[in-house]
Amino acid sequence: MFDQIIQFLATGLSVGSTYALVGLGFAIIYNASGVVNFAQGEFVMLGAMSAVGLLAAGVPYPLALLVAILIVTLVGFSLNKFAIEPARGASVVATIIITIGASIFLRGAALLIWGKDIFSMPAFSGNEPIEIGAATVVPQNIWIMGITVVLVLLVRYFFDKTLYGKAILACSCNKTAAGLVGINVKLMLLTSYGLSAAIGAVAGLLIAPIAFTSFDAGTMLGLKGFSAAILGGMGSGMGAVAGGLVLGVLESLGAGLISSGYKDAMAFVIILAVLFFKPSGLFGFKSVDRV
Amino acid sequence: MTILQAQNIDKYFGGIAAVTDLSFEVEKGVIYSVIGPNGAGKTTLFNMLCGYYVPNGGTITFAGKCLSGLQTHQIAALGVSRTFQNLQVFYNMTVLENVMVGCHLRTHTGLIKAALRLPSVVREERQVREWSMEALEICGLAHLADREAGSLPYGELKRLEIARALASQPAFLAMDEPAAGLNDTETVEMRELILRLKGRGITILLVEHNMGLVMQISDRVLVLGFGCLLAEGTPQQVQNDPAVIKAYLGEDV
Amino acid sequence: MKRLSGFYVYAALVAILPMFFPDNYFVTVVGATILLNVILAVGLNLFIGYAGQISLGHAAFFGIGAYSSAVLTTRFELNAWLAMLLGLGLVYVVANLIARPILKLKGHYLAMATLGFGIIVNIILVQESSWSGGPDGLGNIPNLSLFGFEIDSDLRWYGVIAFFSLAAVLVSLNIIDSRAGRELRAVHGSEFAAQMMGVDTVRTRNNVFVLSAMFASLAGSLFAHQQSFVSPESFGFGFSIEIVTMVVLGGMASTYGAVFGAIVLTLLPETLVVFEDYEMLIFGAILMGGMIFMPQGLFVFLTQKLRELLKRQRTRANKVSNQSVKPSKPLECDS
Q1: Is residue A252 over pLDDT 50?
Q2: Which of A15, A18, A45 has the alpha carbon at shortest distance from A255?
Q3: Whether the complex's predicted ipTM surpasses the cut of 0.95
Q4: CATH fold of A2-122+134-277, please?
Q5: Is residue B45 a part of any domain in this protein?
Q6: DSSP string, B218-229
Q7: Is the predicted pLDDT of residue B243 greater than 90, yes or no?
Q8: Domains in chain C: how many in total?
Q9: Is pLDDT of C332 > 60?
Q10: pLDDT at B23
Q11: Chains that touch C (3 or more CB pairs under 8 A)
Q12: pTM for this one?
């Protein structure tokens, strides 16, 4: 029983890393523009699908991965430029519909290009199972967790230590003030969407060898990444990461110990629990309305 | 007779003491003004009176009833109404509809009766319309009844809030800076309006920065500084109080 | 009654169309679907458009109504109308239960919570196959019958659904033009001011949520009997989004806007079928474009354009008749 739990933990951390990256992407866009990007999952899907397509066209593996990330980054830029920017000042409901529309659009594009098939992708470094204590993992799991750690640290460094990153944070606090001190707010927003898309693409590339991919693989992932962000506290990138890991582990434990059919429901039960009892999440903070 | 009584009110936000040990009484039918520099705790006081904030200590009693634990709409039902410093107009409705919301407490059609459009509903609608037009006329806005609220200029929006509050036939009206942002002519009109309200028997609690207005129409004045009571009395008493002069003008060094 | 003139026109259209085209698929079948969607959209519009809230999980209530009717009539052989009432009762209870915690939330949080609720209900419908039939669904749902008349033809279904659809529109119009309606709009306009006017805003939002859920439940029960078959697919996140789109794209805070949205959103896939593989792509593009360029909704957008057009024609007509009168002084610009 204990061994099983270790296995569930290992699987959970691996899946959770994906959720963490998706959640991080959510948090970056939310922080920068106050928009909840329902198309986040599509960035993940497009990353994997683009790579699959490029590989099928004969592009060498490492190059295919890089180009896939680049393509999705461009998609992120486009989303900001053509859907979000023109709708500045729209109501919360309107913005939600816009990003949902974008997610449907991207899914439709994927459907058009690649059809309804399910695709697999070769792993980064083979499929030989590795035993770590009582858990058995494949190399891809290690890659997932390792690259997630590196990426999260890079993002943390970017926002904490570089001027560019701080400029983006300034925009999320107060766009007008940021503009007044000379920050190119539009460029900052564009960057954050591109960055978020790139992170999503990486998540997609990491998980595709294990979980396969298809045109609608992004939807659930996006929603779960959103749950991770809420669990951690909207507005905290690191919180989203922690939320993703916690969500992955809880989901894995729940599926293994309680019921696998309700695995997907786990994420949403958690969201409801968080929203009902502590909407600011594990690491977020409450705000008071001024009247 | 006393209509409103505040006893030892405290309010903290984290480590900041917004209001400390404040006590005062308001007599029925008077115009009672609260003045003080920005940050003195005036709007906090209003928000506590309306149930939006809960005092950390002390009690507020209105018409003999203790207000602690009551929600805003319950306090409104006791006869308290309010206008807002940052306008809280219903921009998604017309001028008349805004005021009709004010008649809420005087009517009782719920979802089911409304859905069936019973004859009582039709009668009530006619009545509400009458009451609302009356309130608009008192505030000089009757000719704008069917305009979208969002299209009105600032000065008229302030009067719209008053008309809306008036429609609820309050015993007590708290006005948060009604003259803010008004020019001299508009301020004079506002003064007359407030006096008309007093003439209808409404007790008025006024927060204002316009000292001229305050001193002209107030029966009593309360001076707040850093959340504490600095002085209380008639306008003349307050104007000559050394603590007040010190707070506003400083001392000779 | 001038107040309901729009409604009478609409009701007339709904009644007349099948008289002229009783055998036309578009009128009887697609029309019935439109009318069903009108019930959903008009109900949700009270919650989203007028009260200013949001729900991305309303398909769940549609599903609870549908499955209540399906399960109670097939497994327990209950009378269909009784089953419908019980479905409404169930939704009343469920909606009230979740309303209190869920409606404490606003904006994105409310959106996410309703989304979560909708998905959980959907997953339950898929998982609990012992009574729900699981992902394969539940079939052989008996027909509705009215005073011995069995509702078994497209035309008869059109009639039944049209009745409920028109009732829904009428109820919505009645509510809006009353104290209850102003309560909703006040909550949307400024919750604090509404409270200060004596509106119990918590109860208001609670009640409109439950009401809109019951509209959805009614539509669900009708749907179950009309299709004779239900499966969880019809009651998921995708459909929740469709209903929200009908309300938002059609025009919020406007009953006719919601009706218009239901019509457009139901007809759209029928017309987009022509584009085959491009269907999803184009739908997504329309959603984005619509919300970016017409955030107040298609209905309001079109009626505004119409009004401007009429005004321009009127001023042109005035100019022609005033041509002989010269202005007394040249036009001045505002200083």
Answers
A1: yes
A2: A15
A3: no
A4: ABC transporter involved in vitamin B12 uptake, BtuC (1.10.3470)
A5: yes
A6: -SEEEEEETTEE
A7: no
A8: 1
A9: no
A10: 92
A11: A, B
A12: 0.89
**Which chain C residues have a beta carbon less than 8 Å from that of B115?**
171, 174-175
State the CB neighbour count (10 A cutoff) for residue C80.
21
What's the angle, vertex CA A168, arms to CA A163 and CA A174, rounded to 5?
120
Pairing, β B65-66 against β B57-62: antiparallel
Residue-level pLDDT at C168: 95
Q: How far is B174 from chain A (nearest CA, A)?
A: 15
Q: Which range of residues forms the domain containing residue B67?
A: 1-79+171-253
Residue in C266, C267, C185, C264 with CA at minimum distance from that of residue C219: C266
Spatial contact of C64 and C232, defined as CB atoms under 8 Å apart: no
B86–chain A Cβ distance below 8 A for any pair = yes
Chain A: closest CA distance from residue C135 (Å): 12
For residue B84, being part of any structural domain is answered with no
Does residue B20 lie within any of the structural domains? yes
C178–B52 CB contact, under 8 Å: no
Distance of CA A201 to the CA centre of its chain: 8
Give a yes or no: residue B123 inside a domain.
Answer: yes
**pLDDT tens digits, one per residue of C100-150:** 999 988 888 898 899 999 999 999 999 888 888 888 888 888 888 877 778
Residues of B in Cβ contact (< 8 Å) with C253 = 92
Tokens 């009574």 sit on residue: C131
Q: What is the CATH number of the domain that holds B193?
A: 3.40.50.300
Which of B44, B12, B17, B3 shows the shortest CA–CA distance to B226?
A: B17
Q: How far apart are CA A237 and CA A25, in angstroms?
A: 8
Q: The domain containing residue C171 runs over which residues? A: 2-321
